[in-house]
């Protein structure tokens, strides 16, 4: 699995360097030494972009390829499941359309499922290409991306921002792998134009709907920014992320109320409680959507992990900034999904649905890289391997 044991960072990164790190400021005579920082200093933006660099890096891809070739588990079984899925089919026919219209709860659903599934397929096929080095998979991924870039012009109706976020999270993953690891993609320029003109404007300004919206939109925005090498769009996405994550996951250090996202208008306790689905007792790891259902919470936690993973690949590690929030959130929800009774103080004593297979990326970052003990999250993560790759919350993610 790409995230189970991360290989060392490659010394040969594609045009990628960290932003400069300067020495610590010295204390002058008579000056007080500054107090120790209570939180990690914000990570600096990278100087250049790394490719492929949306959700998965070349060292990760090479690592998984080696594990699969060796028949090692759980990578080999996850690969076999991926290759047996409809998303890896070489006979898939793309279903592009000029206008994708998506209403609330998929009513209407005019091209919404088709677009999401074609984007997931393009990513799955790009992974299949890299691991097998069979060019048929790369050509199929290109065929799907070219079919959509030839016709897509807009997303409409009330769910347009979320739809654009979902599809726009998968497209750049596929495009990065194909553009930077396959021999030729003549249509890559046109694809770049449509993600810039059709997708990015819909997601870049965020949303004040339930938090999974802005997080999914920001995942799309940062991926598109990396593909386009658009520094301003990348920095804006990181800014949205830094504003939204503290407003999506509560920790006791926040005080008596959760933080609110900039511009949200949630200026009274009553408004905040309503936005948090009526939950008025706050505990470490509670999410803004916990008392709505765990499925939407899973979408949010998944997007948080993926944004942080992409930024880490780009040389800007955001995980330390969000580690406490994300580990508490994953732990709280994993604990109850594993069967720990829900106290009456949490969502009236009952939680709806389940998270889905969304813990792998965050668990690897927090437990394997940063060394946090995450017993419940580890149990749930291992129980769900190899992950089901057919849900929108985990579309073919390695």
TrEMBL record:
<dbReference type="GO" id="GO:0016829">
    <property type="term" value="F:lyase activity"/>
</dbReference>
<protein>
    <submittedName>
        <fullName>Possible secreted protein</fullName>
    </submittedName>
</protein>
<feature type="compositionally biased region" description="Polar residues">
    <location>
        <begin position="389"/>
        <end position="398"/>
    </location>
</feature>
<keyword id="KW-0456">Lyase</keyword>
<keyword id="KW-0732">Signal</keyword>
<dbReference type="InterPro" id="IPR008397">
    <property type="entry name" value="Alginate_lyase_dom"/>
</dbReference>
<feature type="compositionally biased region" description="Low complexity">
    <location>
        <begin position="33"/>
        <end position="47"/>
    </location>
</feature>
<feature type="domain" description="Alginate lyase">
    <location>
        <begin position="118"/>
        <end position="324"/>
    </location>
</feature>
<dbReference type="GO" id="GO:0042597">
    <property type="term" value="C:periplasmic space"/>
</dbReference>
<dbReference type="Pfam" id="PF05426">
    <property type="entry name" value="Alginate_lyase"/>
</dbReference>
<dbReference type="InterPro" id="IPR008929">
    <property type="entry name" value="Chondroitin_lyas"/>
</dbReference>
<feature type="compositionally biased region" description="Basic residues">
    <location>
        <begin position="1"/>
        <end position="27"/>
    </location>
</feature>
<feature type="region of interest" description="Disordered">
    <location>
        <begin position="375"/>
        <end position="398"/>
    </location>
</feature>
<feature type="region of interest" description="Disordered">
    <location>
        <begin position="1"/>
        <end position="47"/>
    </location>
</feature>
């Amino acid at each position: 699995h790409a995230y189970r044991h991360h290989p060392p960072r490659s010394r040969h990164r594609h045009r990628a360097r960290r932003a400069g790190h300067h020495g610590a400021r010295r204390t002058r005579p008579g000056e007080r030494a500054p107090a120790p920082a209570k939180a990690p200093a914000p990570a600096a933006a990278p100087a250049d972009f790394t490719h492929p660099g949306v959700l998965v890096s070349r060292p990760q891809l090479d690592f998984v390829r080696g594990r699969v070739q060796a028949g090692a588990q759980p990578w080999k079984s996850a690969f076999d499941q991926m290759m047996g899925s409809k998303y890896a089919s070489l006979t898939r026919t793309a279903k592009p359309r000029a206008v994708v219209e998506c209403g609330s709860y998929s009513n209407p659903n005019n091209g919404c499922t088709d677009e999401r599934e074609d984007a997931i397929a393009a990513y799955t096929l790009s992974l299949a290409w890299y691991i097998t080095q069979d060019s048929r998979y790369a050509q199929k991924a290109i065929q799907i991306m070219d079919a959509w870039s030839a016709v897509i012009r807009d997303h409409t109706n009330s769910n347009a921002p979320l739809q654009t976020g979902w599809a726009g999270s998968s497209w750049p993953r596929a495009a990065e792998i194909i553009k930077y690891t396959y021999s030729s993609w003549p249509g890559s320029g046109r694809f770049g134009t449509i993600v810039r003109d059709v997708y990015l404007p819909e997601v870049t300004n965020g949303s004040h709907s339930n938090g999974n919206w802005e997080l999914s939109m920001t995942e799309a925005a940062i991926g598109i920014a990396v593909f386009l090498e658009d520094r301003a769009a990348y920095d804006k996405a990181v800014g949205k992320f830094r504003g939204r994550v503290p407003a999506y996951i509560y920790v006791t250090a926040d005080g008596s109320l959760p933080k609110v996202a900039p511009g949200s208008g949630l200026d009274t306790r009553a408004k905040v409680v309503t936005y948090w689905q009526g939950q008025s007792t706050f505990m470490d790891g509670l999410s803004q959507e916990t008392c709505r259902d765990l499925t939407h919470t899973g979408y949010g936690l998944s997007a948080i992990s993926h944004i942080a993973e992409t930024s880490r690949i780009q040389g800007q590690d955001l995980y330390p900034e969000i580690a406490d929030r994300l580990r508490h959130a994953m732990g709280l929800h994993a604990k109850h999904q594993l069967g720990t009774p829900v106290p009456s103080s949490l969502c009236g004593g009952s939680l709806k649905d389940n998270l889905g297979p969304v813990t792998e990326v965050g668990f690897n970052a927090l437990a394997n890289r940063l060394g946090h003990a995450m017993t419940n999250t580890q149990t749930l993560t291992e129980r769900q391997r190899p992950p089901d790759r057919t849900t929108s919350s985990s579309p073919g993610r390695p």
